[in-house]
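Quick sanity check, Crp/Fnr family transcriptional regulator:
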Amino acid sequence: MGQEKSCIIKHFSHYSSLSEDEKQLLISLEDSPTDIKAGTLLWEIGDPANEFCTLKSGWAYSYRHLENGDRQILEVFLPGDIIGLREFAFNQRLENVRMINDGVICHFPHRRMLELFRQSLPLTSVMFAIGSRQQALLTERLVNIARRSARQKMAHFLHEMYLRLRQTNDDISGQFRLPLSQEQLADILGLSPVHVSRTFSALSEDGLVFRDRHNVTIPDLDALSVEGEFDDAYLTDNVRPLFDAAG
């Protein structure tokens, strides 16, 4: 597979410049790709946690079911993401993971990550940076659910998705595909599906967001940022200054 088609290389390159050897190490994590259909359960709580997987294409999400039957979606994974990092120190899965749409995943065992750590200090540093950002994403999601209005929740989430997608896709310009149902959006934002629909309509009436089925258009990203009280520091920080200082 060519480097220009590798989502994981694009993802890692956001944090640090990579050598050719480091790019080849990352490509090795995308060996043996498996086609996965929408809705497929990758693993569930209690399964053995002995491997990661890279998301080569498609979207996925992690979630927990509550005692009353409600579902809370914890994280949305995009192409280039590594799924399962938070369970590296655990024997069992702590959350369920399911595909949102058709995609391709590549499994690799935990021991392969240890080999990567031994072979490359820069990639080890980037892996820690990615783990830190995943924690920051969860923290921001908690604040979004607990303390913002429905309009702010939606505006913040859409802004976040747009910036995350743009990191690995330079062609995005004010428009992107959001393959999430209203039920899934509701379970991400802590709203009802009806409230999700009403919130989209309100944002559209104010010219902030336009949705045509799964296609979302943001005419003014700055205006959406103000609406969602969005601060992109948790998405834009990287480890490049660390390597510059070391050099």
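Posting the structure with no commentary besides this: The chain has a mean pLDDT of 89.
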